[in-house]
Design brief:
The protein is about 40% helix and about 15% strand. The protein is α/β, with parallel strands linked by helices. Strand 7, helix 13 and strand 8 form a beta-alpha-beta unit. It has 15 helices and 15 strands. The C terminus is likely disordered. Strands 1, 10, 11, 12, 13, 14 and 15 form a seven-stranded mixed β-sheet that branches.
């Protein structure tokens, strides 16, 4: 007998997967949510605690799931000393509070740093993806092999749907930004290369040293020491020297990438990166005397993330498109986050991000403790984004994000009837300078008690 979760996930490559209304999906989704809850409530310590605290034994509605969602900060709830002081056994024990599977057989002796710890976990099938942590602690997000396999499938499907580019392995792929070296990013890159890259052309990787969680962590630690006045003069001098060297590498990478694109301008291109990197490379290409007239008219672009606080001219998108000759229907953007395992691709006609059937979207109050009133038969609502990603296997799929979004249950201009997100996504931390989720404090206190 096919489970409700399997029914929803089987739509991953269906041409009409975004054309199912929320009303049509809701009964199956609730069945799937309860199916996952019953399977995981005694396996994930933090989930069991939340369920007991809320008195929930069964999921009969989307409302029942709200108290069981984890705030995105739950994956940063480990004591910082575990990481700073290399207490890898304690950090591994903490990871067990958010994992549905026992973490066993990992060699924790003589670990050099966090990158070594992540590698040893991966060798045993526990894949850790981390947020950048550039403004604080990194989120530690555990996943399993099933999640890696799903990411390979999902990344190809969402890009193909959103850009109209078929996976025919006929393009020259050019990375225009450094990418954090974590298992999920590496898995996605491999899948995209296999699907879209011409086997004889390879892929241009942005020429900068690998960005590892360890390197980011060292940077965060040093910035904190400088801010609180505990950094030694020699540490500050070394930090400034390293920063200057990295800036030189980044500046060189822009020019090298621009030269490579120009050299391969006769090929069908797939350029990718954040807007800041794409704009910098495009400007370098223009400065060298090249523009749209020199490139293939069917080039495509994969934009990851938003502006990330980058300050760019108002016409930055048109400038990038006009440089690489990217037509409007070959532009791809995806709404997702490290806490999820699936993407929500933007359609070309309506400019909205479409939610797949196996992700159950929820709009909460700013505090994250209650659903905003909604009607699955139509209408747009605004508030804090929360999601349950039924494709996740290696951790709990329910997360309360830091995003403020507008979710519409009415049909999109592209013709698809499923729920979609307007392209006005904002971070509460950016809007208000702080972001407090009501249940975050109690969850952190519980996890610290267990760990």
């Amino acid at each position: 007998m096919t489970s409700a979760i399997e029914k929803l996930m089987s739509l991953v490559d269906a041409p009409d997967r975004f054309n199912h209304t929320a009303a049509e999906l809701r009964a199956t989704q609730i069945e799937a949510l309860n199916e996952r809850f019953q399977d995981r409530k005694d396996k994930i310590k933090l989930l069991r605690h939340r369920a007991e605290e809320a008195g929930i034994t069964e999921i009969n509605s989307v409302e029942d799931m709200v108290p069981l969602l984890f705030p995105h900060t739950a994956y940063k709830s480990y004591p910082e000393s575990f990481l700073m002081e290399g207490k890898w056994d304690r950090l591994t024990k903490w990871l067990g509070t958010v994992s549905p599977y026992p973490i066993e057989g990992v060699d924790l002796e003589n670990i050099a740093d966090i990158d070594d710890w992540i590698s040893r976990l991966a060798a045993k099938g526990y894949f850790i993806s981390c947020s950048s942590g550039t403004t604080g602690k990194s989120a530690m997000l555990i996943a399993g092999q099933k999640d890696m396999d799903w990411s390979k499938l999902d990344t190809v499907q969402v890009f193909s749907w959103g850009s109209g580019v078929k996976p025919e392995a006929n393009r020259y792929m050019v990375g225009c930004a450094p990418v954090a070296t974590v298992p999920k990013n590496q898995t996605i890159a491999e899948a995209q290369k296999a699907a879209f890259s011409h086997p004889d052309w390879g892929r241009w990787n942005y020429p900068v040293p690998p960005i590892t969680v360890g390197s980011l962590t060292k940077m965060v630690v040093m910035r904190k020491k400088m801010a609180d006045g505990t950094a030694r003069p020699d540490e500050i001098a070394d930090f400034e020297k390293t920063s200057a060297e990295r800036q030189k590498v980044l500046d060189d990478a822009i020019q090298l990438t621009a030269d490579n694109i120009i050299e391969n301008r006769d090929k069908l291109l797939m350029v990718s990166g954040l807007w800041s990197g794409l704009y910098a490379v495009a400007k370098a290409v223009r400065d060298k005397g090249y523009s749209a007239k020199d490139f293939n008219s069917d080039n495509c672009i994969y934009v990851g993330g938003g502006l990330k606080r980058a300050l760019l001219p108002d016409d930055y998108q048109e400038f990038v498109h006009g440089t690489f000759n990217v037509p409007a229907d070959r532009h791809f953007q995806n709404y997702s986050m490290q806490e999820l395992n699936s993407g929500m691709p933007k359609c070309r006609e309506g400019g909205r991000y479409h939610v797949p059937p196996w992700i159950v979207p929820m709009i909460l109050s700013k505090e994250g403790d209650a659903l905003v009133p909604y009607d699955v038969n139509g209408g747009e609502i605004e508030g804090r984004a929360a999601f349950f990603d039924l494709s996740l296997d290696g951790r709990w799929g329910g997360v309360i994000s830091g995003d403020k979004i507008s979710l519409d249950y009415s049909p999109c201009a592209c013709g698809n009837k499923g729920p979609s997100v307007r392209d006005n996504i904002a971070r509460y931390a950016d809007l208000e300078g702080d972001d407090k989720i009501g249940c975050a404090g109690t969850i952190e206190a519980y996890v610290r008690g267990v760990a």
